[in-house]
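Query form — protein Aldehyde dehydrogenase

QUESTION: What is the three-dimensional structure of this chain?
INPUT:
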Amino acid sequence: MSAPIDWHARAAALSLNGQAFIGGRYVPALSGKLFDGINPASGKVLAQIAACDAEDVDRAVKVARAAFESGAWSRMAPRERKKRLKAFAALIADHTEELALLETLDMGKPIRDSLAVDLPLSAQCIDWYAEAIDKVYDEIAPTAPTAVSLIRREALGVVAAVVPWNFPLLMAAWKLGPILAAGNSVILKPAEQSSLTAIRLGALASEAGIPDGVFNVLPGFGETAGQALGLHMDVDAVAFTGSTEVGKYFLQYSGQSNMKRVGLECGGKSPNIILADAPDLDAAATSAAWGIFYNQGEVCNAGSRLVIEESVKDRVVEKVIEVGGAIRVGDPLDPATEMGAMVDARQTERVMGYIEKGVAEGARLRLGGKRIVADGCFIETTLFDDVTSDMTIAREEIFGPVLATIAAKDIDEAIRIGNDTTYGLAAAVWTRDINKAFKASSALRAGVVWVNCFDHGDISSPFGGFKQSGFGRDKSLHALEKYTELKATWINLG
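ANSWER: The structure tokens for Aldehyde dehydrogenase are given below.
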């Protein structure tokens, strides 16, 4: 049995790279500007990160466009492209411990989750799309014998992938897999709070044989690098995961520039509905606790609204409080830690502001509600009871470990409450009645509806939202639709 890893020693020994990756090499921002990458668990500076702006975006787009037009990747034989993308996935897996450590240092999630969840799923995602490359066929339309209509999917060209800080590597993988599988060039723009794994991917992509210029990484701020990508006249598409507010900016940027394609996976306020006839109320309550407290509540589809049938509400709430109160919050580098630090001081203050508003509006604070230590970004697991749908904590995305519980007299009221939101990313219903399950899954306006579970899935199953949670799908073969154009070629045989 191997000795436990001393993650603090590993962290101290790291040599961190904060540069952009353009055209197959690491480069500073043209302006020479840098910003601090902060460890949210300690408040200490991890690395100086290149603050890329419009000039760097223009440089990267030109390199990516030249690589695309050269055909080095876009016209590579599918079998060869598959081989190299699989090699990329294997290198991610081979560097699991290094990348997991970077992920935890950068955004505060527990090392146990980075190791067991983020890294395996990221490598699996890239590998899955690599396998799809030579298995997705084009079509022939059912025309008369006097003509043949070929229907092909062609790569878009240059795609900007703008990803969030809550799952930096995994959300990048959800974009990179289908973007690269389809033959596009990509510019990956990580969130400024979590740039390190994205930057490291540049070297791994090059090592895997992905041609120079096909894979580029631009760290920087949303209002500079992100905006410049959205407005650039030679970017063919933007794939964005993040807040609804910023997603709307990218729609505006598209209209103000070249009408580039935009795919959005935005905010959520997911209802988790537990009915009195749930197969196992304790299991449902335990799942509900982890459905909001996992990853510090920084999950777009977190079950932040727990809607419970009145007759079992007290029992379920007590179990959620028991489970949530026992979750170990602390040092993200301690393998025993179950909930780590919020991503930064700004997000910490934002969440605390929502907790204060919940109290002010009359919700009953039953669990947590406080910061844990003054010099780190830690917040207790928090539960509000007796919440009504008009309260701010029931309507706005908090993106922290804050649960709002709402009573419903029956399934119809639960569905109504569930749909009473501008979002539509995910939902869940717990019942042993198959008729109720189908009724809820059909009526709930959400891209994913779970029955007797929460946040389950597979790379083969699509993920995305309704309403202001965005449009387009990540995961599954459907993701390829965002990064390809349909072309029909009509051949006259008459």
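ADDITIONAL NOTE: The chain has two domains: 7-266+469-488, 271-460.
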